[in-house]
Amino acid sequence: MSVVCGVECVLCLGCSRWAWKRCTHVGSDDSETWPSATPDEFEPVPRLCRLILAVYESDLRNPQSPPDGGYRVNPDWVLKHADYEQTQGRSPPYLIFADHERKEIVMAIRGLNLVKDSDYKVLLDNRLGMQMFDGGYVHHGLLKSAVWLLNEESETLKSVWEETGREYELIIGGHSLGSGVAALMAVVLVNHRDKLGGIPRNKIRCYALAPARCMSLNLAVKYADVIHSIVLQDDFLPRTATPLEDIFKSIFCLPCLIFLVCLRDTFIPEGRKLKDPRRLYAPGRMYHIVKRKFCRCGRFPPEVRTAIPVDGRFEHIVLSCNATSDHGIIWIERESEKALGIMRENKSETITVPPKIQKLERLQTIEKEQKDALQKAVSLNIPHAVPADGEPIEIEETETVAAGTDNGGAKRTNWDDLVEKLFKRSDSGKLLLNKESHTP
């Protein structure tokens, strides 16, 4: 009898401890040790939010639901505004904008439309470990959508970049579903910069707002200098490793699903998560906007923390009534605008050295952070992780593909073929990396 009572006590204590840890875990805990972001690196985020919101408008000259202060977009600089009819369900609607004031070429991709079957088809076109790419795994449907967009618009992006004197930066931004498409589009572009006129890597940037988990951890760290993910406080999507297709199959019972996933993931050891190469993560460098604190009523002035986390990368769902509302692009735009204003005020009050020196020091810090993250990934034995000085995988090109850019670009580049060149099929039909296929 005493043994049974002892077992019951241990079980009750264990359950109580679990319940306490889960119920007291708040969104700000995920970035508690991260340093603050600077206004220079965070400045594009509110602008990208407004451009993504502009995709929802049918006529930017007569907007129906503009954010506070308007979209601040010159309609004459919009190069293309594609809706669902033009994308044919292959990708979410998008907008291409040439910002001549800031010397940027921007592609903004909207998020999931709950009433469009085509968006669900993109999400459901995947299963765990289905698509291997560039030394890791990615979401199959999102990669297909990204490649389709490149087939449609890469020539436009290339011609605009060349016409503007090869000085403009190429920025790709997306929200929710669009964030996964944008991130994978950036990865493909970085590996084939010559197909875009030889654009330098440091001129390609991607901003994933409320990012979907779309790539392996080694890829998320590898491309942290290009991809920037922005998470608002308790947003559920970057935190759940449950496949996107399962989330949206259960969209009408989302609170129940979030709770069950939270319960399940609590009992999965961290080491097991890290060593699963098929597990997908939010991409790139993380920017966490924090506006609420534990056991505090109301909202606080938002602050932005940033890092390139390896272990503990938004692994725990927050049991919060704001887990779904923090996913909204409207709230991300408002809070990021407030946070940027606060950062600028603080900077003007505390600046003691010339801004150019500060910017140079910050760039050096960012480079060191990524090298440290790459080394940590190797030390944790994360599958396919490479050290900071590791050589990237070279992509072999056939004469047919190379001819797509010869003779003044007479033949359009086929991005499906370029992506396929990263793989080689084994005798069983399994996709292997070229690098791995030569291993006996």
TrEMBL record:
SUPFAM superfamilies: alpha/beta-Hydrolases. The keyword Hydrolase applies. This is Uncharacterized protein. InterPro entries: AB_hydrolase_fold, Fungal_lipase-type, Mono/diacylglycerol_lipase_N. Pfam families: Lipase3_N, Lipase_3. One of its GO terms (molecular function) is hydrolase activity. One of its GO terms (biological process) is lipid catabolic process. Residues 7-71 form the Mono-/di-acylglycerol lipase N-terminal domain. It comes from Hibiscus syriacus. Keywords: Hydrolase. Residues 106-242 form the Fungal lipase-type domain. The keyword Hydrolase applies.
